[in-house]
Design brief:
The chain has 375 residues and is of the alpha/beta class. The chain contains 13 helices and eight strands. It has an eight-stranded parallel β-barrel with strand order 1-2-3-4-5-6-7-8, surrounded by five helices. Helix 3 links the parallel strand 3 and strand 4. Helix 5 packs parallel to helix 6 (145-157) and helix 11 packs across helix 13. The two termini are 47 Å apart. The protein binds phosphoenolpyruvate and manganese (II) ion (MN).
């Protein structure tokens, strides 16, 4: 399945010349001096394409710093006038959209706490109708790809075609080194559904820790994400929000300098030939895997019929345990991870059960129909 989004390329609304595309700025605009001075340092790096700053901050508890509010828009205006950097802010209500647009903010983004709520997203989308402004949509706090997709669709349906997604990680119970679990498969899922939709990574909110930003940034680039949004503050140690994850503009340059850019398209023809050959081998193996799966399912059908004829339950736990043990041991010897093997076997097993259930039910329905016609 592919999403039906109407998208303009990233290069139509942001300077994509600097590699990787970088949006940077403080988590929050705190004072005019802090914002403007940070903007100057970021502009001086020559690597930053847009200045981000939160004006209205969604905070978990009341009483925490909830953003400087509308006055910050004036500071952003000044930062832009003095540095030439386009500006980006988070909007969470129709009023935010109106004020930001009136103040000449160049790019808007929808935050993770807004993306979870279709009412909020729709309110933002309605306020955007008829406006030609780029909008970036962060993934929802919870790991739900449909919510992310739904928010992108709502904004796109309102006529916003300069659209991008921001991957900022997901809330999770699991204890981990990250503030928000990256769950890369969800970002890859979005990329698969909408290959033309620019995807930007936010390593600051994924890591919650400035020491891990380089690591996550590299991983995002290796997965062919188009850019990075990184929080940068003139003095992170005294930042009013997200102090642990912000970096100075100098540290930002260091992180960027150490990233390796890999190209999805292959220029070197020798590399291309080798890759082509390896891909051919993979194609053949995948065909074999599918063929063998089909053969396996045919036998499963025979088993299903046999069980039905002999009144045997579909699931026999002992047999399943035996399969799992034997196969994972074998797979381990072949250097496949147990986690992978178990997942694969569970998937195959679930399909086998589904097929056998279908056989049992179909036959019961068939028998019932038979009885009716003979009555
Ligand atoms: C932010 O970008 O500062 C922010 C609040 O992010 P998120 O919506 O990803 O939590
Ligand atoms: Mn932040």
């Amino acid at each position: 399945m592919k999403l039906n989004l109407n998208i303009q390329p990233l290069s139509s609304w942001i300077k994509t010349g600097s590699e990787p595309l970088l949006i940077a700025g403080p988590c929050s605009a705190e004072t005019e001096d802090q914002l403007v001075a940070t903007a100057h340092l970021l502009a001086k790096t020559g690597r930053v394409s847009a200045l981000r700053a939160g004006i209205w901050k969604p905070r978990t508890r009341p009483g925490e710093f909830e953003g400087i509010g509308s006055i910050g828009l004036e500071w952003l205006k000044r930062a832009k006038e003095e540095t030439g950097l386009p500006t980006a802010v988070e909007v969470a209500t129709a009023k935010h959209v109106e004020e930001a647009l009136k103040a000449g903010v160049d790019i808007l983004w929808v935050g993770a706490r807004s993306t979870v709520n279709p009412f909020t997203v729709q309110e933002i989308a309605d306020a955007l109708r008829g406006v030609d402004v780029p909008v970036m949509v962060k993934n929802p706090v919870n790991p739900d790809l449909s919510l992310w997709v739904g928010a992108l669709e709502r904004i796109n349906n309102a006529g916003i075609t300069k659209l991008a997604a921001i991957h900022r990680g997901f809330s999770s119970h699991e204890k981990s080194a990250f503030r928000n679990e990256p769950m890369w498969d969800l970002a890859i899922g979005l990329k698969t559904l909408a290959p033309e939709l620019p995807l930007i990574n936010d390593p600051s909110h994924i890591t919650g820790n400035r020491d891990l930003i380089g690591y996550i940034s590299q991983k995002a680039l290796d997965l062919d994400m188009q850019g990075l949004m990184i929080e940068s503050h003139i003095d992170p140690t005294v930042a009013w929000t997200d102090a642990k994850q912000q970096v100075t503009p100098d540290a930002l340059v260091e992180i960027i300098k150490h990233l390796t850019l890999r190209k999805p398209e292959i220029r070197n023809s020798e590399v291309k030939d080798k890759l082509e050959e390896l891909r051919n081998q993979i194609d053949k193996i995948d065909d074999l895997v599918i063929q063998k799966m089909a053969e396996r399912m045919k036998i499963v059908e025979q088993i299903g019929n046999y069980k039905k004829d002999n009144n045997i339950t579909i699931l026999q736990v002992n047999r399943w345990d035996e399969i799992l043990n034997k196969r994972t041991n074998y797979a381990k010897a072949l250097k496949l991870s147990t986690e992978f093997t178990e997942k694969l076997l569970e998937l195959i097993h679930a399909e086998s059960i589904r097929k056998q259930t279908e056989i049992m039910n179909k036959d019961e329905a068939g028998q019932a129909a038979d009885k009716l016609t003979h009555a």
